[in-house]
Specification:
This protein is an all-alpha fold. The protein is built from three helices and no strands.
Length: 108
Amino acid sequence: MSGDLFLFVSTNVALAILTVSLLLTAVRLLRGPTLADRVLALDLMTTIAVGYVGVIALRTGFLLYLDIAISIGLVGFLATIAFARYILVQGGADRQQRVAGKKSVGLR
């Protein structure tokens, strides 16, 4: 088996595995029972996108694609941090409402 044929077959297998994982992640994104599950699915989707770009970079031989993969990874990281901050703030607001509800019940 020549090197070109091995690279062609291995990139096809990698793209197939990435496609299956993307479909399963999309299912988790749509069916996720909690917001945290959906945020985790979005984070995994950005990781899969980096994988796609990396495989395409290997297949075509253009190293410029690796810069694009790094950019996608950074944007995905920042988006995950923003969503985590949102979940944290939302959880704090819910906790304050529960505590305020208990205090008002105790005063009656």
